[in-house]
Each structure stands twice: as C-alpha cells, then as structure tokens.
Amino acid sequence: MGRSYLSHLECSACGAIWSADELHTLCRACGKVLFARYDLDSARTSLKRDDFGSREPGIWRWRELLPVRDEANIVALGEGGTPLLRARGLEQRLGAREVYIKDEGLNPTGTFKARGLSAAVSRAKELGVSSIAVPSAGNAAAALAAYAARAGIEAWIYVPRHTPEAMMNECRAYGARIRVVDGLIDDAGRLMREDGAGRGWFDVSTLREPYRAEGKKTMGYEIAQQLGWRLPDVLVYPTGGGTGIVGMWKAFQEMEALGWIGPKRPRFVSVQAEGCAPIVKAFESGSRTAERWPEARTIAAGIRVPAALADYLILDAVRATQGTAVAVSDAEILAAMAEMARLEGVFAAPEGAAAYAGYRKLLAHGALDPSESVVLFNTGSGLKTHELAESLPAPTF
C-alpha cells in the first residue's frame, strides 16, 4: 500500500486551514468541526478504484485516504469490511424493490464505533497521545477502551448512569477508567472536559477531533464498492451525533473528486427517536441548527443525544440530497427489532432497528417510493442490549 495523501485540516464552517501534524480538536478560529483533507489531485493519478478489491477487507484497505502516515501506528482489530445483506424478507413484507442492510454489528466490540475509534486512536498514537478520553452512551466507550488498550494508551470514560451495565463491564475489562455521571451524554462530556483540564487528556468526543469521521466515512467507500460503484437511491441512518452521515457525505465528495463516481448522491434519511429528536425538529422547522432536546428519553441509547455538535453538517447533508428526517417511537423500534430478526436473521441494535422503523414509516406515508434502492444501517449488534429481547413482541403460532 502507498502513503497517506493527508495534506491538512480545514474548518467545515469558516474554512480556516490548520496543520494535520499537530493535535487539534475543534477549529481554533471559530470552534466548529475540522475535516481532514487529502491531496486528491495527486491521488487521482495513482489510485484506481478497482485495485482496492484485491486488498484485505477492512477500513485500512483505504489506507491512502485515511489519516495515518506510518503504517506502524495503525491500531486495528479487524474493523470494517462488514456485509451488505440483501433483505429479501423485508422487501417482500413491504413490497419494496431493493433493500439492503449494512450490518455493522459484526465489527469489533459489536458496533460501527470501531471504525471511527480505530482511525482516531491510530492518529492519536501517531501524534504522541498517551491519555485519551470520551463521553459515551456505551458503544463508543467500549470501542475506545478496546483500541486504547491495543495501543497502550490510557483511556478515561465518562458515561451516563443509565448506560447498560454490560457495556461498562466491557470497558472495565479493557482496563479503562470509568466515571458514571448523573445526566445525559452531553452532561458527561461537560464533566469530562472539566476533569480533564490540565491533565493532558485528548478528547475524542463525536466530531470534536477530525479523525473519527475518517473511520466512519469508510462505510461510504464500502457501499459504493459492494454495489459495483453505483450508489443506492436512499441511505437510512439512525442519528445521534451524526458522524456516519457526515463521514459518508465527505466520502462521496472524495470519490467524485477521484473520478470513481459521478455527481449523483443517495438521499440521506436521518432517523431519531420520538423521545429525542432535535435533528428532526430542526429539519421540519427549516433551521440549520438544532436546539437541545429537553429530557431526552429512548431505549436506543446511541441516539439519545440531546444536542449534536455537527447539527449543521447533518442538516446540510440531508437537505443537499433532498433527503428527510423522521422520528419513531420506542414501540416501533421494538417491533422493528423483532421483524428484522425473524425475517432476515439480523438481531439489530435498537438504533439499527430505528432505521428500519423509520423506513417503514416513510414508505407508509408516501415520503419514500418502494421502487427506490435503499440501504438501512444496522449500527450494532442486538446482543449488546440483549435485555431488550424480553420486550420484543412474541411470535404467534
């Protein structure tokens, strides 16, 4: 494999340029999200999309388009390369033409968080970080703890009190230090930053540093490759912090610049829970930013995010693709978990089931057409929230 084409960091809001070889969190000029940028003009002359198919699967297949300069600093556990499953049972149930499930539950630590944390921890290691910290509803915490352990980096984890005990035990097993916080994930983040002031912790909160999005963007590269370099009509994505939408939107821009795809984009559909739907509310009101959601509640902890730092980027991607946003109830999420399991053999995380529930709702309301090709993102394994299985509707005989 060749070298990384990483060239610089660019602010997604004010356009300020920063060195990619210094540690950065948010833009120092305006406090907004930084993007890793690559010399795509040079990459276009040497990288051919069809050459990647012969490489070992996983996110590091795309190494030249990821931010690690020295391969020795890559911290990997086999992340990425997840299957794109044709969902013929769901197609038949819904009368839909072409539905796929991108099953991210098969990643290390059981969720798509492995992609982002592999990239972020690898780059942090390369830049000399020795202590790393994150607030999390559970899955990002487990992934960070695992990759930090593999990298030999100290991990500090701040989680809300309602985080599943199994996920906290997973973090403890990896040797991370955990603090349980009264409140929601943004409360955990505030306390983490207060505690970490002056202690040298590198903050890898969602989109507060440039590299988790780089790991997540590989879902976009994979889907394009798995579909023979055509993109689906619709991507349905459960949205908390929104790194996946932001990352894939960026990936499609990069692929077009490389000459691998044309200008056509899938319509992004952002799915949230009725008990925590700040992006849906902002989309429906026409706002570019989202207000913090009061008293956020849902069984899907990964989308129980009352305020997203990248709200403007999520909403931009949805609107630029003529997409939409929809909220679903916890009852709809549980029903979708049961239906995905029984019709497809996929035991989805509640967040992934929310994506399917949102798709069902939009089809029923005529907002999506059953003739459109669709990818549903199951962002994690239902085994990580197995206690919810007791609440699933029982089969009838």
Provide a descriptive summary of the structure in words.
By secondary structure, the protein is α/β, with parallel strands linked by helices. It is 35% helix and 16% strand. It contains twelve helices and 13 strands. The strands form three sheets. Strands 4-5-13-10-11-12 form a six-stranded mixed sheet, sandwiched between helices. A four-stranded parallel sheet has the order 8-7-6-9, sandwiched between helices. It has a three-stranded antiparallel sheet with strand order 2-1-3, with no helix packed on it. Strand 10, helix 8 and strand 11 form a beta-alpha-beta unit. The chain is globular and about 50 Å long. The chain starts with 5 loop residues before the first strand and ends in a 19-residue tail after the last strand. The model has no long low-confidence stretch (mean pLDDT 95).
Observed structural traits:
16% strand; 35% helix; six-stranded mixed beta sheet; four-stranded parallel beta sheet; 397 residues; alpha/beta; single chain; 13 strands
**Number of beta-strand segments:** 13
User: How far is it from the N-terminal to the C-terminal residue, by CA?
Assistant: 55 Å
Q: What would the average pLDDT be, to the nearest integer? A: 95
Structural class: alpha/beta
Instruction: Note the main sheet.
Output: 6 strands, mixed
Output the radius of gyration: 20 Å
Strand content: 15-25%
Structure annotation, total helices: 12
- Estimate percent helicity: 25-40%
Principal-axes geometry comes out as globular
Strand line-up in the sheet with most strands: 4-5-13-10-11-12
What order do the helices and strands follow?
Answer: EEEHEHEHEHEHEHEHEHEHHEHHE
Low-confidence stretches: none
